[in-house]
Specification:
Chain lengths: ~210, ~180
């Protein structure tokens, strides 16, 4: 399977122009080249935006804004960085700006739970630790509820946790994209985890020790 | 096992990498310690994000986007805010995206489905009529068709019912033989 994918990638690289070629074309005024770049990277950009926002309309808006920014800043793009990574950085920053613009308040959290999420929450409060581990693997609502908890955090906390865990980015990558120092990223990540666990603890009922 | 050690093992327990003995100790501790039990349940709520496992999900979601080691992000120059992007550039980009159907407004273009369907239906109806008239050649000529097939009185005379559809009495044949 991997071999087939590699072959397809090779065949495409031979038959299709590279991102760098298309960027050069777009800079020369070839609008079709930029359209091809947008088509090529659209789903990837939308996926990044989906990490931060669940609303499809919002995701499309941010993806579009990413390409508009990219077009305006093409002259500043340097070929040593892959075009996809450059777009990802733009999308991340736009999502961060949007997060700062509209921050959810934690009080909204409980009212938002779906029936499945409430069931999962009930299970978290009653099941044994072994059952919990097993159930979490199978239940999509475990992820959606965790996403809702994440949405209650401060924008910078949410940003750093999303990039670190969902996008699997290193501290230095996050620092470069967001423009923070590495120390700040580390501290922010630590505090964000604590804040997330505090929010989760609010949903867990205290119990008495078993004798 | 104390509380600190127990909490250190949450991740290993969640990911199934803890040894049997350590795992047993942790479960025993959670049974007897309400604070750690609560902390573990809170951990379970956040684990799908923070400790998703091997990272395969993140990797697959990331697709082929090249990231990580080897990238020199120090030279990364991002375009400024949207306000900083020249309006002409933004409009031009939006137009290109629209043409490439990437722009969200592409979804809002008026649909011509109904119009196309109506045109298709009309064409098919016209073709069907043409086919009918060309294949179903009448066996009679126009003059034959227009020729009277008989007068109303003749038709009525051949029928057993009157014009209201009621049965008429049989008419006895009339002899025109004056002499007889």
């Amino acid at each position: 399977m991997r071999g087939v994918l590699a072959f397809k990638r090779f065949a495409r690289s031979v038959s299709e122009p590279s991102d760098q070629d298309l960027v050069a074309g777009a800079l020369d005024g070839d609008s079709a080249a930029f359209a091809e770049l947008a088509t090529r990277h659209r789903s990837r950009v939308e996926r990044i935006c989906q990490r931060f926002f669940s609303d499809a309309e919002q995701v499309r808006d941010l993806a579009q804004e990413t390409f508009i920014h990219a077009y305006g800043g093409l002259k500043g793009y340097r070929a040593e960085i892959p075009f996809g990574a450059w777009l990802r950085a733009i999308a991340t920053n736009l999502c961060y700006d949007e997060l700062r613009r509209r921050r959810r308040r934690p009080e909204e959290l409980v009212a938002d739970f779906s029936a499945a999420e409430s069931t999962w929450l009930g299970l978290v409060n009653t099941a044994t630790p072994e059952e919990l581990v097993e159930a979490a693997q199978e239940r999509q609502e475990a992820k959606t509820l965790a996403d809702k908890l994440l949405a209650t955090l401060k924008p910078e906390d949410r940003l750093v946790l999303t990039l670190q865990n969902s996008e699997d980015m290193s501290v230095s990558e996050i620092a470069d994209i967001v423009g923070w120092s590495e120390a700040k990223v580390k501290i922010r990540a630590f505090r964000a985890r604590q804040a997330l666990r505090r929010q989760a603890a609010r949903l867990v009922r205290p119990r008495k020790a078993e004798s | 096992m104390n509380c600190f050690e127990a909490r250190q093992d949450f991740v290993g327990f969640w990911q199934g990498t803890l040894g049997d003995e350590r795992r047993g100790d942790l479960l025993a501790h959670l049974k007897g310690c309400p604070k750690c039990d609560r902390a573990f349940r809170a951990f379970a709520l956040t684990a799908p994000i923070l400790h998703a496992g091997s990272g395969a999900t993140a990797e697959s979601a990331r697709g082929a986007t090249p990231t990580g080691s080897g990238l020199d992000f120090s030279r990364l120059e991002l375009p400024g805010n949207i306000e900083g992007t020249r309006r002409a550039d933004a409009d031009r980009a939006a137009e290109i995206l629209r043409r490439a159907s990437v722009h969200r407004f592409a979804d809002r273009r008026p649909s011509h489905r109904l119009r196309d369907a109506a045109a298709g239906f009309s064409a098919m109806a016209a073709a069907a009529l043409l086919l009918y008239f060309s294949l179903a050649t009448p066996s009679q000529s126009f003059d034959d068709l227009m020729a009277p097939s008989g007068s109303i009185s003749e038709t009525a005379a051949q029928s057993d019912t009157d014009f209201l559809g009621q049965q008429m009495a049989p008419i006895s044949p009339v002899s025109y033989d004056i002499a007889g």
